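DM from R.C. (forwarded with permission)

"hey, sorry to bug you on a friday — could you get me a structure for this? deadline for the figure draft is monday and I only need the backbone to look sensible"
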Amino acid sequence: MHKSLLPCLIVIGALGASVAAQTTWYVNAAAGPGGTGTVASPFTTIQAGIAAAAVGGDTVEVAPGTYVEQVDFIGKAVVGRSAGGAPVTTISGGGTQRVVLFRSGEGAGAVLEGFTVSGGYGAPVPWIMMACTDGDGAGILCLGTAPTIRDCVITGNATGWSGTPGNVFGGGGGGIAALSTGSSGASPTLERCVITGNSTSDGGIETVNGDGEPGGLGGGAYVLVNPWLPTSSMTLVDCRITANTTGQGGTAMALCPTGAAGGRGGDGAGVYGAATLINCVVADNICGNGGPGSPGATSGGANGPGGNGGGVAGSATLIHCTVWNNRTGTGATGGLLPVGANGVGGGIALGATAVNSILWANLPDQLDPFTTSVTYCAVQGGAPGAGNIASTPLLTDPANGDFHLALGSPCIDAGDNGIANLPATDFDGDPRLFHGTVDLGADETILTQGFAQAGPGQPVSLTNANLTGGGVYYNIFSFDLCPGGPGTGPAVLLGLCTTNINSLIAQIMLPIGTGPFHFSASADTEVWGPYTLPPSTFESVCFEFTGGVVGAVSRVTRFTIQ
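My reply, with the result:
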């Protein structure tokens, strides 16, 4: 009997060694059943790929498609990566379950990269104590773990309720939640992610006296704050947190003569809790309104207040962020009092700190003045603190999602280079400190070489220039007038602008022998040259903007070559 089994055992061992050597597992929802995770025979679910992977070091590569499943990293340092990126690869919870779970001690080596995470629902489940249910983290739940989430779109996820029987409040973190366990805090890192269109649930009713409970916190992202548990945190770098909402306060139901109070609207529609945001855009998030009170026979029935911190609430730190058009919740009506208090801090509230950032167009105000701190920020209406300005930031087109600094923005070169954790790049990956002093907000204005080309006798102008830099400083245009001669007609440079801060120089380089050069320029423009740049075959005309008021715009209206 032993003799007949031995060859089988040898074959099985050989197969096991072959599988163990594999480091990339392949998944394709369109594949047939029975796949083994190879390129030719992929798995059909992401979970199968993770289950097959080694504890550390393997990659699960996922083909484009929609995967309706719950993905649990089960404690493995695995890279789960889409082959085609978030626009074409979706993991969906189907509206019935959380989408991605990190709950078994995963660290930074557990990576989710390039997916759309959608359709998540934070179904209440037991957490820490069996009597307590938790509906937090509908899209991604990090429970005492520290994964890396990169290049993902987290959208269309909604929390369930949390609490204990008879005391049910809205769950936190429609997009993502970082929760502590009894032994460890969570600390996920998100890089280049979009967190948009997520929501938290409304508050319920406290059954002892009928008070409404608070709406859920952190529509986009939520970090648990609990002094009895290890500290959790979250780091978001180069992310966009937009159009998320928190839940409404619960509607009261008077169960005694003194009436019942309405619940508070959820705080921190974009982000709530101890998060660090670097180079992030936080825009168009809205907090929940307060819940109506219910008057009793003798008294009571206060209306619930609106949620605070439309953009960010709690002990968060914002570094080089742009916080725009977020809104707090409004107080409820219907109870004993005429109206509940409106939320405060349309941009930031409840202990948040911002530096080198922009807070603008938030309602009803930019910040909670009693608990927040801002320095070197552009704040609409002004704010106390070193380096703050109240000048309009001149964002390019924020209503349509373009948060780059426009020509002449006062936020250019208005930041503090000496802050802790100064990022090396901006939200586009462009270098900071391009012009000696950092800009405010998520964008750093950068110029690259611009080129223009025209045939003999044709004008050179901005209409045929490649101005890929899109900025205002030290823009150098190299005009190639084509082989065969400089041309007989004028070369016209229309609308070249620069912001006049002390002394800035723009330069035009042309083949030697071209000219003479003629300018039609504003009064505060000084023209140099032409002069030769040896051993180059080009010569240069420089013009320096030196006059006028600092921050004013100077313009060279016409430049001709004859």
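R.C.: lifesaver. The chain is about 5% helix and 30% strand.
me: no worries. The longest helix spans residues 2-21.
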